[in-house]
Amino acid sequence: MRSYRVLLLRKFPENPTFGFYRHPKLPSSLLGRTLVRFLHVTSPADVVAFYYQERFLRTYEVLFTDTHVYDKKAYYPLEDIRGVQRRDRELYLEITQLGRLIVHEMPMGSVIAAELMERVFDMIVRAPKEDAIEKVIQKRAGLNPASVQWLELRDEVLRTIDLLHEKYQEGKLSLLEYEMLREDLLRRLV
User: Fold this and answer.
1) What residues contact residue 72 under an 8 Å CB cut-off, 6+ apart?
2) Is 133 helix (H, G, I), strand (E, B) or coil?
3) How many whole angstroms separate alpha carbon 123 and alpha carbon 187?
4) Which of 21, 32, 119, 139 has the greatest number of CB atoms lying within 10 Å of its CB?
């Protein structure tokens, strides 16, 4: 089964105000209460990220391991998710199970949380599948080691620029800082 750990660690929102937590900053008290409800997750070390929001007399919980997503109603392999749609505070996951497409309703605690979680599931759906990864490996097999090294550097620089842009969007970097860091990274590719 395919692992989405790296994708979740890089892209899952980390915002305790809206109830989003990511490894290694998982609050143990919330995680402990959440794990009691999800019997298939045996260890807190298996949890990569989770969403927890308490509303009046109701809690909303979504837990991610590296291969599965869990909520109060069910759990599914992440690789089986084919699409996601949002209506107000509800997410509708399109999941393939035994050759059929089923729709799973996932209520969220707020509209903002639903929007953020929709982005997470979009990233999971758009993540390259195993056959695409194999094609990249085959294409790189014919290249010399210096070319492969340059491609890996390019990919890392682009990922870092994405992370810097997220920091800028969150207000943690000014536009000037973002532009200077981005230009410095791009110079390394020349």
Assistant:
1) 37, 61
2) helix
3) 28
4) 21
CB atoms within 10 A of CB 44: 13
Length of the chain: 190
Q: For the segment 12-50, what is each residue's pLDDT rounded down to a tens digit?
A: 999 998 999 999 888 888 888 778 777 788 788 889 999
Cβ neighbours of residue 65 closer than 8 Å, sequence gap 6 or more:
41, 46, 47, 48
Amino acid at 81: I
- Check: pTM over 0.90? Answer yes or no: no
For the chain, first and last CA: distance in Å? 38
What CA–CA distance (Å, rounded) separates 78 from 2?
8
- Predicted confidence at residue 103, as pLDDT, reads 94
Torsions phi, psi of 73, nearest 5?
A: -90, -40
